[in-house]
Write a structure and sequence with these properties.
about 425 residues, mainly beta, Immunoglobulin-like, 3 domains, six-stranded mixed β-sheet, five-stranded mixed β-sheet, 2 helices, about 10% helix, about 45% strand, elongated, DUF1573, DUF1573 domain-containing protein, Ig-like_fold
């Protein structure tokens, strides 16, 4: 290779190298690379801890407080005392909380050496809890206590308690109504969380179900371990009830506020300025409570099912079970009647659905001076379309009779034909 060729090759290589460098710089200028910003440090917003002492010293003597028992809807508060026992100002900042947390006023969120602030935690339980615990986190610039955990705990119960309480609901059972004489049950409503309250009225949607009330005696209050309450006597008039089981509602109206005002855990507390810490406004309320009253009106009627027939005397429900729609089903029951010498007659009847067949036949062979026996037949005819009558849409047979103490008899029938 001659000298001229070598020089030409070197020049070409140099030009190519310069072009490559220039193109690389140009692309960089068109799309400059932006360095990624570091993610925000969660500690950036906390009080800064000095690199060296002297340091503040955050002290809370009792960081946990137990309210004991309190009522659902009742607000209780407790004030924790946070003291700075260090040599320089203590900086504080409220962190995460599961309850209401309030810090007393301070200058620039700092607590001077030897001084203290109050941190108030307030909790209002919304449902009964065997044990609750609520916390608040306080951040500081004390290197030994960068995070202070304050906790309140306790047990939350229903504000009002009843005798016969089941899962927070009052269920009262009346004696069985076997004649036309009224029957009664006496229960109680009481509370250990209020010094007093008033019942302003008791209402019932069922004619024949009434209630009266009076304050519990000191002996009764002691027996119930409660502060105040009332005994309530519920009376049912059998002449106003159809035969069978029933469940009715009594609505108890009171003067208890719908929202209970917060209560201090320490009495006669004063603000740092010297003002009494009191809630001047109590919202008006007319809180109501519901009592479920159940009973069974058998009257002069007794129903006895034959073998294999499912009959519930409390609800007057006859369960025919599942059967073939093509074959249908028929069952028999015995009915014993007292309280009249005249044969039982059906004055009027209502049957739903209309294809359900019902027959009442007197057993003249039955011998008794006080009772009469009748055969009851319920039948679903064969060759009907498949149908279901369950708990929410029971079939019904309602009879009006000439019996003075059993003017209305209502049977309910449950079945599935396939």
């Amino acid at each position: 290779m001659n000298l001229r060729t070598i020089l030409t090759t070197v020049v070409v290589l140099i030009v190519a190298l310069v072009g490559t460098v220039w193109l690389g710089r140009g692309n960089g200028d068109l799309e400059p690379t932006t360095p990624a910003r570091p993610a925000a440090d969660p500690d950036d917003d906390r009080p800064k801890i000095a690199a060296k002492g002297p340091y503040p010293k955050a002290v809370v003597e009792k960081p946990r407080y137990n309210f004991g028992e309190m009522a659902v809807g009742q607000s209780l508060s407790h004030k924790f005392i946070l003291k700075n026992e260090g040599e320089v100002p203590l900086e504080v900042k409220k962190g995460n909380t599961t309850c209401k947390c309030t810090l007393s006023e301070m200058k620039d969120n700092t607590v001077a050496p030897g001084k203290s602030i109050e941190i108030e935690l307030t909790w209002t339980p919304k449902a009964p809890q065997e044990h609750f615990g609520q916390t608040a986190t306080i951040f500081t610039n004390d290197p030994e206590n960068k995070e202070l955990k304050l906790q309140i705990e306790g047990t939350a119960n229903n504000l009002i308690s009843f005798s016969g309480d089941m899962m927070g609901t009052a269920h009262w059972s009346l004696p069985t109504m076997e004649s036309d004489e009224p029957v009664s049950y006496t229960g109680s409503i009481h509370t250990k969380y209020m010094d007093e309250f008033k019942i302003t009225g008791i209402e019932s949607d069922r004619a024949g179900l009434t209630a009266t009330f009076k304050p519990l005696t000191p002996e009764e209050l002691k027996e119930e371990d409660t502060k105040t309450g009332y005994s309530i006597e519920v009376t049912a008039d059998p002449t106003k009830f159809p035969l069978g089981g029933f469940t009715e509602r009594l609505t108890v109206k009171t003067d208890i506020p719908n929202d209970l005002e917060p209560t201090e855990s320490h009495a006669d507390h004063k603000h740092p300025e010297g003002h009494d810490h009191k809630h001047e406004h109590q919202p008006p309320g007319d809180r109501t409570f519901v009592i479920q009253v159940s009973g069974n009106h058998t009257g002069p009627i007794r129903i006895v099912p034959t073998f294999g027939v499912y009959w519930n005397p409390q609800t007057m429900v006859l369960n025919l079970g599942e059967f073939s729609a093509k074959e249908g089903k028929e069952v028999m029951l015995s009915m014993f009647v007292e309280g009249t010498e005249l044969p039982l007659e059906i004055v009027d009847q209502q049957v739903i659905p209309d294809f359900l067949k019902f027959e009442l036949k007197k057993d003249d062979s039955f011998q008794s001076k006080t009772k009469q026996r009748y055969e009851l037949k319920f039948a679903v005819p064969p060759e009907l379309p498949a149908v279901s009558f369950g708990r929410t849409n029971l079939a019904k047979v309602k009879l009006k009779t000439n019996h003075p103490n059993a003017k209305v008899i209502e049977f309910r029938v449950q079945f599935i034909s396939l």
